[in-house]
Amino acid sequence: MTAEGEKLYQHIRIAYEHIRLAEREIMLEKDMQSGSIFVGTSETALYGLLLPVLKNFRAQYGEIKLRVGNYTTTQALAALNDGFVDFAIIVTPFDRTEKLDVTELKSFREIAVCGNAFSALCDRKVSLKELVSYPIVGFGHTKTYDYYAEQFSKYGLAFSPDIEVATMDQIVPMIENNLGVGFVPEFFLEGKKNVRKIDLIEQIPNRTICLVKRTDRPLSFAASRLEQELISSVLQ
Questions:
Q1: Which domain holds residue 182?
Q2: With a threshold of 0.85, does the pTM exceed it?
Q3: 182 phi and psi, to 5 degrees?
Q4: 143 domain residue, yes or no
Q5: Of the N and C termini of the chain, which has fewer Cβ atoms inside 10 Å?
Q6: Is residue 19 situated within a structural domain?
Q7: Residue 205 CB neighbours (<10 A)
Q8: CB-CB neighbours of 92 under 10 Å
Q9: Which CATH number goes with the domain that contains 142?
Q10: Residue 30 above 60 pLDDT?
């Protein structure tokens, strides 16, 4: 073989090895024996839906690497648009665009709550007008803040938390320690003995946990399987 032929052969051999390895990777991914998934989610979506699905998924497909990013809704959408996550599991409201494929998964209710020191608010109907006279524990300027600001404004009231938190799981301990009143998803109260529900006169609309992916970026085999598991979980 000439020197030119040897050089060409080496290039072809390397290319062939790359193709063979790529084919093997694809076969392993199809068989769910390899691959990785990066999900961007909020705490509300994690506890309200995603966590038990991840548990079952991990039990079935232990070879798949899972990465879960804890984001606000805005951060999760930014990570999705920038290609950092495969899909996002977030809560309404958020801005929907033509580039986003949105699947609504689960509706849930958020309720007003307080600690034992505010028991005067319990076992009777309470208006939002009365509620705002108490210290409020809530988010700063996030989509959740915008949501409650909009709801309160319908009744000519301002939503202005006296104590601002960064995450949903900070609200319940502050309520338990009687730092104020607040709003949390109903499922956050499981096993909480020192948090009491406040029966509001006004109705706060339900919110929805959604799966959001990009229309211009197909999911990997593993991410597509997790998507199917999430959708199946709410149909059972």
A1: 110-205
A2: no
A3: -165, -175
A4: yes
A5: C
A6: no
A7: 13
A8: 17
A9: 3.40.190.10
A10: no
